[in-house]
Specification:
Blueprint (H helix, E strand, L loop, with lengths): L2 H30 L3 H7 L3 H10 L1 H26 L2 H7 L4 H43 L12 E4 L2 E8 L5 E8 L7 E13 L2 E14 L6 E12 L1 H4 L14 H5 L6 H5 L1 H13 L3 H14 L9 H25 L4 H34 L1
Antiparallel strand pairs: 1-2, 2-3, 3-4, 4-5, 5-6
Length: 370
Amino acid sequence: MLAIGRYIFRQLFGALVFVTVVLTCTVWLTQSLRFIELIINRGLTLGAFLYLTALLLPSFLIIIVPLALASAILFVYNKLIMDSELVVLRAAGLSQGVLARPALALAACVSLFSLFETTYLLPASLRQFKEIENSIRNDYSGLLLREGVFNSLGEGFTVYLRSREANGELLGLLVHDSRIPNRPITMMAERGALVKGEDGPRVILVEGNRQEVERETGRLSLLYFDRYTVDLSTLTNQSQTRWREPSERFLSELLHPNPNDVNDVFYAKNLRAEAHHRFVAPLYPFAFALITVAALLSGEFDRRGQTRRILVAVLAVALTQAAELGLFNLASKSPLAIWLMYANPLTICLAATLLLLRPLQRRQRLALAV
């Protein structure tokens, strides 16, 4: 690469890093709000919160980095145009291909990163995230019960406590169990504790009463007890094997699903669409780079600015990205859309390349005519 190419590449790389960091922080802040419930109700620590949100970063970067690449190219090349640097470079005899080479080189780097991300980093991080999230949501022994609040531990099971002692003992307990709709149960106790047993979590109530109402007859059964145990293992679903979603699977698992798994057979189209999406994703950095470069380099210099060309490039990138998402969703229903998934970026790349090289071909024909 020429010295001028390295100069442009450094500017592009710096802009890419800056835009990626800004967009990632913005998306991270908005998505991290979904974990507020885990912090409040499950007692999630700050370290666990940061680790969980960090595991989500690859799913953001797969979309953010190609868009940041397009933004960096638009910014840097527009700056070169407005500073008349590209005018000087063209006057020095540099072709369109040479001027576009730094952007395409950076697109190749982003494409390699996308390939690594889709084949390994993304499924590995999402798999770890889902396992931890599932463990936190189903581990009621570590649940942080809030005082003076009706805490829902699952569908049809609510716990209320007046206060909590420093040793973890719960005071003024009320437990309402409506998991059996026709026979709701309400238990009240002076004190108790939430513990984890061999078979799962359970609530231990001390010095209280148990009230059960038969809805059909309206009969009330009242039982006073010194100690009573409520099993919560049915709420955790820990005995069940969690089905891995397509985004959590590696390519080998997507291309060769388990024929004996009912869910794998039912979602076979989704698994196939996810596999092809992993192959298509590395093509989009080239598509976005060629769109933006062609938009700024294919026209003549305009002292009034390149606003119109920038808007056209932004619109083209947005439509291409929207088409990617739409075709991915369509591919899970129709196998024909899989071919369209590949055709979308390849067609954009071909059209942008022809547009980029058209001025060069025109100058060559004029030179031959003279």
